[in-house]
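Structure (tokenized):
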């Protein structure tokens, strides 16, 4: 294999794609910069023109993941249509779909141990995704008097955690089995939780 060195067309993105492939195969901690360079078909020295180290490369993969994730969440929310509840549930399903379709990004975002405090661009990208879910949560609770309304940031965070749990247990590999599809588990969990908060009427 001929090394392309510094003459690679879009070396920065090629390295990100290489990192994503390696993360999918080995996990965020399972590869070296030299391996990423090899997959991208460049010399190891060429990597340092764009990234100070492996953590910075993973952070860029995670940032791009959050951008994709936020766009998918926004698309799923669809400005609250056809109803606040349907749009809210759609954002949960988008979480599952993202984890399945973009496993390398997902692992870079949630399993790499990156510090949001040390990565401002990453923190801002992550906030875009949270903002969609918080907006959906606020819209869902509009009908409740303000003094009785649960904080949208709180219950949207709970739904995020529930979605993450369903992904980790039932949507990523054979570690645990359920007789129900992950989407059904999440939808049922969201319904039970929202009824407990008084955001939905009880089942009749």
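Design, position by position:
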């Amino acid at each position: 294999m001929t090394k392309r060195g510094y003459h690679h067309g879009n070396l920065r993105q090629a390295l990100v794609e290489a990192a994503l492939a390696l993360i999918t195969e080995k996990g965020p901690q399972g590869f070296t910069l030299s391996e990423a360079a090899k997959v991208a078909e460049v010399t190891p020295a060429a990597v340092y023109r764009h990234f100070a180290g492996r953590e910075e490369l993973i952070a860029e993969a995670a940032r791009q993941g959050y951008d994709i994730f936020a766009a998918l969440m926004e698309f799923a929310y669809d400005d609250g249509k056809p109803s606040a509840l349907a749009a809210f549930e759609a954002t949960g399903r988008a979480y599952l779909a993202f984890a399945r379709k973009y496993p390398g990004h997902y692992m870079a975002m949630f399993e790499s141990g990156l510090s949001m405090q040390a990565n401002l661009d990453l923190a801002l990208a992550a906030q875009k995704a949270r903002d969609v879910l918080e907006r959906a949560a606020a819209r869902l609770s509009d009908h409740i008097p303000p003094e009785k309304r649960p904080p949208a940031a709180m219950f949207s965070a709970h739904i995020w955690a529930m979605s993450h749990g369903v992904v980790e247990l039932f949507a990523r590999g054979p570690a645990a089995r359920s007789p129900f599809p992950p989407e059904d588990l999440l939808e049922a969990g969201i319904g039970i939780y929202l009824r407990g908060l008084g955001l939905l009427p009880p089942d009749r």
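Reviewer-requested clarification: The chain has nine helices and no strands. Residues 12 and 50 are 6 Å apart (CA to CA).
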